[in-house]
């Protein structure tokens, strides 16, 4: 853009271009706002992926995709689009342009000045640049402008206001500082551990340690609390008959639910076998077969994914044939129902694990 502006300024007889002001926030303000948006957006993405039960390995890809697209869009807006309107301050006057339209050349002797702008639809704090064009008054209105004070001073003095030398000196270090903040946030900050799935952000993230079927999950959270030899061992339990939220938790001290960072052990319950109990007949031709069941509760270390211990738990919560069954669909048919452990049973086992019983 600078080369085309120099050409336009020369053609208009305005001399050399000294500064260009764009109708947008200054770059430092935009970069600070962008870093704040990135921080909030990454947390939202992590939460969304957790709510959707996505594998923690999807986090780095999703976050890096967001950063690449959003920073690319910002770079395009800053470097290519250049804001909605721009003012180029030259030796002999101003060049005023808008993306996609022609450029207006205004000599200093034609400039009348800057005044506060008022009227319907005009935002508070807006300014109006007015000038004479063939004896007719023309004007443009703007509010947000990079280095607005310097532009106002140039119009008032009808002379370019040079950019302070310290601004040029700080431009390079400023870019390096922003890049360093981004690198720190991605690689060294607590947020980086969450993005890279090195530590859990929610308790439900720990469900990834539970194996699928009989295969080990291979998951681990290296930044989780270390599993020490002495109790207590804060723990959380997941069961395949429930969703991905923890069924019960235990701190081993009787206190409230542990923080995700403090969890040392993850217990995973799955159906090991079922045994036929009885079949009950209900109205409308419906029959239900009930099964007693045995569940396997395996306990894994959150930090390494290593299996620590295991328990078995028998469930038989069918008492007798009776009551009312809700029909789903047509009358008749056959259903099966497998007994599941109660939350009290799960809590008892997890409390034992938390205090180190049976290790």
Notes on the structure:
This protein is of the alpha+beta class. Helix content is 31%, strand content 28%. The protein has helices at 2-12, 27-51, 58-81, 148-157, 165-187, 190-195, 343-354; strands spanning 17-22, 85-90, 93-98, 103-107, 111-116, 127-133, 136-142, 235-239, 248-250, 265-281, 286-301, 307-315, 333-338. The strands form 3 sheets. Strands 8, 9, 10, 11, 12 and 13 form a 6-stranded mixed sheet that branches. A hairpin with a 4-residue loop joins strand 10 (265-281) and strand 11. 24% of the residues are buried.
Can you give me a brief rundown of this structure?
By secondary structure, the chain is α+β, with helices and mostly antiparallel strands. Helices cover 31% and strands 28% of the residues.
The quaternary state of the protein chains shown equals single chain
Regions with little confidence, pLDDT below 50 for 5+ residues: none
Helix count from the secondary structure assignment: 7
Main sheet specs? 6 strands, mixed
Helical content stands at: 25-40%
Shape field: elongated
- How many strands? 13
Radius of gyration: 34 Å
Strand proportion, as a percent range, falls in 25-35%
What integer is the average pLDDT? Answer: 80
Q: Give the SSE string.
A: HEHHEEEEEEHHHEEEEEEH
- End-to-end CA span: 71 Å
- Content-based structural category: alpha+beta
Which features would summarize this protein structure in a list?
359 residues; alpha+beta; four-stranded antiparallel sheet; 13 strands
